[in-house]
Amino acid sequence: MTSITPIDAMDEEAGGDLDPPLGFATRAIRVGHRRTGEGEHGEPIFTTSSFVFANAAEAAARFAGDLEGNIYSRFTNPTVRAFEERLAALEGGASCVATASGMAAILAVCLGLLKTGERILSSRAIFGSTTMLFNKYLARLGIETAYVPLSDLDAWESAIDARTRLLFCETPSNPLTEMVDLRRLAEIAHRNQCLLVVDNCFCTPALQRPLDLGADIVIHSATKYLDGQGRCLGGAVVGDRKTVGEEVFGFLRTAGPTMSPFNAWVFLKGLETLELRMLAHARAAAGLADWLLAQPMVARVHYPGLSAHPQYHLIGTQQRTGGGIVAFEVRGGQAAAWRVIDATRLISITANLGDTKTTITHPATTTHGRLTPEERTTAGIGDGLLRVAVGLEDPVDIQADLARGLAGL
Length: 409
What we know:
Blueprint: H1 7-14, H2 24-30, H3 56-64, H4 78-91, E1 95-99, H5 102-113, E2 119-123, H6 128-140, E3 144-148, H7 153-159, E4 164-170, H8 182-191, E5 195-199, H9 204-207, E6 217-221, E7 235-239, H10 243-255, H11 261-272, H12 274-293, E8 298-302, E9 325-330, H13 333-343, E10 348-349, E11 359-361, H14 373-379, E12 385-389, H15 395-408
Parallel strand pairs: 2-3, 2-4, 4-5, 5-6, 10-11
Antiparallel strand pairs: 1-7, 6-7, 8-9, 9-12, 11-12
Helix pairs in contact: 2-4, 2-11, 4-11, 5-6, 5-10, 13-15
């Protein structure tokens, strides 16, 4: 188990310049809300498809981009904008584009920035749907993807060629919680004129700020911890004003993978408690990881906060604490893993994560089930692997629920 590093101390170490100069928790509650003439204390939901102009000249100026203001909720909505501004402030970015889902955010980055003949270099340890997007759908457009081990920096460097435009990774990875040194990976990317894109879903800006470490773009599935209660689908892309604010936004404006105002409002409320929740998830997950180490039918535990984790040295400098995801391998393969899942009475059997409710899934047959057996083996997704997204219940109850299945083995 590791101590918790304050996020502002990490900002300082990384040379981050917070603007406005407010604490993380304050930004999570206050940024983005512009009160209307009604004087509301909470953020309003603008449930309108379009907006009215004062005259024809104003309409023309807004459509031409000469005058800022709302046009159409596919790409300009005040509630969505409030969420975008708040998340950008938390991540330390200049621009944020909100999308309909996390996968829509990845799609918007790829189609907004890449063209036929260009290449993505990705870590092998990524979400199964992201692999399918890269291998099946982007490949149809002539955008090739190559894969390297996440933490092998030499492999990243040697795999870059003249067509490589974008380096993509999750850190920690799904589901094995592997990490990569983002400062060093950013140096490799920029030395080769590539953009570094980081999926920060598992940590959120409460535990890790990739832009401060040199990344160019951060991607989120807002569905997960940003919401925190499993209520809505959404995604986000955070970065600079040119790459994200113009190019990725331009794709969203035209193609329309848009976040709804209601969902944006839900995410705004989720951000208010983000830091409190992430620290509580991490404390409970660290305790569960320690407990799992002592279980005789558990062959291996994957959790960044354990001293045996290969990238444990990044805790406290890159990543504030271990996070809320624990993966572990049981002896006996798929049959044993399924018995553990089926014996639970409290934990929710679902592939979602980032909820107040603890969830459990068998990655080889769910989140990574569409990969070939060879692809799963290469990614380290074994048949006995289970992923637990530790919620906010009493940790003793979570352990007792897992103990039922483990005892049956």
